[in-house]
Amino acid sequence: MKTVFPKDFLWGGATSAHQIEGAYLEDGKLPCTADTLLQGFRDRFGKGYQKIDPEKYYPSHQASDFYHHYKEDIRLLHEMGLKCFRMSIAWTRIFPKGDEDEPNEKGLLFYDNVFDELLKYGIEPIVTITHYETPLHLAREYGGWRNRKLIDFYENYCQTIFTRYKNKVKYWMNFNEINTNLLLPDFGAGFHVERNDQQRNQQIYQASHHMFVASAKANYLCHKIIPNSQIGMMLAGMQSYPATCQPNDVWETIKHKNDSLFFSDVMMRGEYPFYTENLFKKLGVELRIAPGDLELMSKNPCDYLAFSYYMSNVITADEEKLTIVGNLSRGTVNPFLETSDWGWQLDPIGLKNYMVELYERYHKPLFIVENGLGAKDELVKNDGIWTVIDDYRIDYLERHIIQMKEAMEYGVELMGYTPWGCIDLISASGGQISKRYGFIYVDLDDDGIGSFNRYKKKSFEWYKQVIKTNGENLL
Fold first, then answer.
1. Do 176 and 131 contact (CB within 8 A), yes or no?
2. Strand 84-88 to 10-14 pairing
3. Which one, of 304, 299, 71, 277, lies nearest residue 170 by Cα?
4. 3-state per-residue secondary structure call for 248-292
5. From CA 263, how far away is CA 278, in angstroms rounded?
6. pLDDT higher for 3 or 68?
7. Cα separations (Å) of 341 from 59, 100, 101, 309, 326?
């Protein structure tokens, strides 16, 4: 069978610890920043890390309870034919406070068991080192990544997990969607700063510099400890279009793209891009760079560029028309595109455009590690079997895979594809489980009530055939 996808293409699915595991205080784990977030968009953004109230419901505390269902879930992933499984390690399972010298053995053992179960079925673990899961202690006591001390804590964490899992995991990613630092450092950078704070830009870019240095140290350690490993960065991806061919709209679009691609420019090339000096001057940013930082970054860039892609946006020079759209980005409405239940504009062709742009920019392999349609699924009985008839999800994924193929035929090197939330999980932005992405339905509602039973959706069998035919059978 002739196919554009190579034989070793990594077909899989993606999750994160705080959105799927639950058991947030079990076996020595302590809270991470995500564990302080209530349900609802307004309660998850802009308030910092509030004290956990035992009378309130925090979605991450039980999530989809993968912690106690991982064997069942991995059996289902194997039945679907997955070649890989993207997941994250919860930093607070390994170092509960984040600044300890010695790790928590029970936390290490849990991931040993998960990796062993995956490998038993021939499923390659793809591990994000930290996915919006900064230890709460590091956020409160140190100010998150604004504090240079976190570089050493992260290095110790990486040294520990690389050494422990060197024979089990060869694909790694450092920080999830690091470019979201610009809009919401609360998620990835472990600190909150008000939007009108005059030091906001200084704090965000200084924290990002510390993360760049930490990434370089992790890249060095990973290659040293696991010689056959690959370690990449991860970007919140979005194709951006100018609202018109008016030159000011085009210029604003270039600047908007560079705001995001600044992060991949640094981590993929190992150096700050040419526009940094003028950008920082305009923003009033003066980075504190320690001796050796730039050399370390230069010598240890990332091996591949992983990214999420859900939608595109439209940029205009008219500030009054810009609003927050979709996946933590600013833009305006594209009249030529459909819109999801959550206001995300669906643009499969934009994925192809974006892939070509990224590959042309970096000439390194790409990995689509998040893509999917969040929708309100309905569990129904079909021929006596509980399922979800999610043709809308199949249609979304099919159209994106077609564009992936076209980009690869054009010459783009793509390592793999892991649709987001292959098992239903908690939404990062709103904390609901009713915003479902998965091929596997989890019986749980937005108030945390349900049996936690797993049910295969129609898309389960569809994706199984996609993988079995290596991307050829999409219907």
1. yes
2. parallel
3. 304
4. HHHHHHHHHHHHHHHHHHHHHHCCCCCCHHHHHHHHCCCCCCCCC
5. 16
6. 68
7. 21, 43, 46, 17, 11
Cβ-based neighbours of 56, under 8 Å, separated by 6 or more: 38
pLDDT score, position 326: 61
Alpha helix (H) residue ranges in 367-444: 391-410
Q: Which residues contact 227 (CB under 8 A, 6 or more apart)?
A: none
Top-confidence residue, 271 or 324:
271
pLDDT at 1: 44
Tell me: pLDDT of 327 over 60.
Answer: no
Q: Which two tokens stand for residue 139?
A: 């956020």
Q: Tokens 């569809």 sit at which residue?
A: 462
Joined tokens for residue 465: 């055939």
Q: Is the pLDDT of residue 318 over 90?
A: no
Confidence of residue 97 (pLDDT cuts 50, 70, 90): very high
- The residue length of the chain stands at 475
Coil, strand or helix at 378 = coil
Lowest mean pLDDT among 103-107, 227-231, 324-328, 470-474: 324-328
Split at pLDDT 50, 70, 90, the class of 325 is: low
450 and 443 in contact (C-beta within 8 Å)? yes
| Per-residue burial over 228-247, b = 16 or more CB atoms within 10 Å of its CB, e = otherwise | ebbbbbbbbbbbbbbbeeee
The shares of helix, strand and coil residues in the chain, as percent rounded to the nearest 5, are 40, 20, 40
State the Cα–Cα distance between residues 237 and 240, nearest whole angstrom: 10
Handedness of CA 401, 174, 193, 298 (dihedral sign): negative
Active site residues: 177, 370
Minimum mean pLDDT among 51-55, 154-158, 330-334, 361-365: which range?
330-334
Pairing type for strands 380-382 and 385-387 reads antiparallel
